[in-house]
Specification:
Length: about 550
């Protein structure tokens, strides 16, 4: 059974809360459509209309146009017919893995959060202004920033006298009309020269303190100036400069209000959880030796070590990064299960609104299973001859996407001073070019605080996730080449392209299986549409009305 993680459980009500309004008291249910094994009622269609699962239609006219409603009825009728073909044993799952968070109680939790757990918090402008004043000197004060262009001379390559001589030569050429861009290209010993030495904008407080003080001491000056660090000497000119600025209240008002709303909502939730906890016995991670490996007990319900491991393995950590740690997983399970217990105590599991939603959810789940099963059955009927005929008719539709075999090192912006990061990236590039093994590169990267990755062969689509700059650089590399350090959103990356497999046409019989899979993907939507159409015809669907907003059923213009 598909498991819903705690993060999804909390987010899901945002998507489903719109169903609540559809379940409010309404006139007696009236039938909008009939088929051999069932009906579509007005209340059901309203529920489907509010569901995220409903198809999206262009609204060129009124939202209740008969053509659009007729299609909605057909889609929903197909869901109910598909669901009716499922044996309930096909949807059975392990409901003990996460205490009692099976599919039904997860739906109850969604309903609970959308009703009892829904907190309305109002924040006045006075409260927002007070918070703004508290944070104005920290969060809402932007530091000085500058965009610069520099020439870098390394101390490990030159003596002090040589550096002074080079700087004097550059100063003379600059006075005679040589552009600074040209001087960067000819003299700078940083890889940044390939970007014409341009860097930034950079903010005060984010660079090496010594360099930063020298930089902002020349704020507003146009002439190049000299700055020194432990690594070398810089000839710098400031291209753009902006002084420190306090963001006005009007500019940040909405963000401050939202921050206060989030804080107050969290406080209300904590108070609610404290009240619930008082009503139930919770024992977490017992170590008295009498619980035989149990890590959590809530009243008479228990979770053992294996269940906790399965929960952690299937659940994302904060911000969907990594896995949960043990204690966080236990705390989440306590809160989630206590909310379900409170929902049961309040009788929400018997609420007509919840029961209507639960029925609707069951239809969706079972229809999805039936759709997959029918699609698999169709796939099994496709002969090799049928696929070969389709391939011969239009072989251009059957191509394998390109792929890369590569490794890379990544130097994050959080590491060291700005120029030291680039120097580290350049150093790791040389190690990569020297033919170091993956293990050696990994060790060198870890020692310096960088990261090494060797994903092996990746698709061209996955390569795009490295960022536009890295993706463009990758396309320019030849097999065996190592890129210069590339500045991406989070830092510098150096790519080593080991080999490349370009996009190429498939061939029979070598790529027979890949051609079969591609054929099925091409025709999947078409086949599913045919399957649904056949089911509606077999069940003799008859639409009685498309007017689901009123209380009459009149066999209007959408009748068929």
């Amino acid at each position: 059974m598909h498991q819903i993680t705690p993060i999804k459980i909390i987010v899901a009500p945002v998507l489903l809360c719109c169903l609540l309004s559809a379940c409010s008291p309404s006139p007696p249910e009236e039938v909008l459509a009939r088929f051999d094994d069932g009906t579509i009622t007005r209340a059901e269609l309203k529920l489907y209309m509010k569901s995220p699962a409903r198809p999206q239609f262009r609204k060129d006219g009124k939202s209740g146009e008969s053509a659009g409603i007729e299609e909605l009825i057909r889609r929903f009728a197909a869901l109910k017919i598909l669901a009716s073909t499922i044996d309930t044993s096909e949807t059975a799952g392990d409901d003990q893995t996460f205490l009692f968070l099976d599919s039904q109680t997860r739906a109850l939790l969604d309903f609970y959060v959308g009703t009892v757990g829904k907190v309305t918090v109002e924040v006045s402008d006075e409260d927002a202004l007070k918070r703004y004043e508290e944070l104005r000197s920290t969060r809402f004060t932007l530091p000085e920033k500058a965009k610069l262009q520099y020439i870098f001379l390394r101390k490990d390559r030159h003596s002090r006298g040589e550096i002074d001589s080079l700087l004097e030569t550059m100063a003379g050429e600059f006075k005679q009309g040589t552009t600074f861009d040209d001087l960067v290209t000819r003299y700078s010993e940083s890889e940044n020269r390939k970007k014409e030495g341009i860097y930034g904008p950079v903010f005060r407080g984010k660079m090496e303190p010594g360099f930063e003080e020298q930089l902002f001491a020349h704020a507003g000056e146009k002439a190049p100036f000299r700055a020194e660090t432990t690594d070398g000497i810089f000839l710098v000119r400031i291209l753009e400069y902006a002084p420190s600025r306090i963001m006005p209240f009007e500019e940040v008002r909405s963000g401050v209000i939202q921050n206060l709303v989030d804080e107050n909502t969290a406080i209300q939730r904590e108070k609610l959880m404290a009240k619930i906890r008082e009503k139930h016995q919770v024992i977490s991670d017992p170590d008295d030796g009498d619980h035989d490996g149990l890590v959590l007990e809530i009243d008479d319900r228990t979770l053992d070590v294996d269940g906790l491991k399965r929960y952690i393995a299937s659940t994302k950590g904060p911000d969907s990064k990594g896995k949960l740690d043990r204690q966080t997983a236990i705390e989440q399970l306590i809160d989630l299960n206590l909310m379900v217990l409170d929902a049961t105590d309040r009788g929400l599991d018997r609420d007509p609104e919840f029961l209507a939603r639960l029925d609707f959810q069951e239809i969706q789940q079972q229809a999805g299973i039936a759709r997959k099963r029918l699609y698999r059955e169709w796939v099994e009927t496709i002969s090799d001859e049928q696929i070969e005929v389709a391939f011969r008719e239009d072989p251009t539709r059957y191509t394998k996407p390109g792929s890369y075999e590569l490794e890379w090192v990544f130097v994050p912006f959080t590491l060291k001073a700005p120029f030291a990061r680039l120097e580290l990236a350049e150093s790791l590039k040389k190690e990569m070019e020297s033919g170091k093994s993956g293990e050696q590169l990994k060790l060198l990267a870890e020692i310096s605080g960088a990261e090494y990755r060797n994903p092996g062969e990746i698709s061209a689509e996955r390569a795009l996730r490295l960022g536009p700059e890295a993706s463009r650089a990758l396309k320019s590399l030849e097999a065996g080449e190592v890129s210069n350090p590339i500045q991406i959103k989070q830092g510098f990356i150096v790519l080593h392209l080991k080999s490349e497999t370009p996009r190429h046409a498939m061939q029979l019989p070598k790529d027979a299986e890949a051609i079969r899979q591609h054929y099925c993907r091409i025709h999947r939507k078409e086949i599913l549409k045919q399957i649904v159409q056949r089911l509606l015809e077999e069940q003799h669907l008859k639409i009685l009305s498309t007017d689901f907003a009123s209380g009459s059923t009149d066999g209007g213009p959408g009748a068929s």
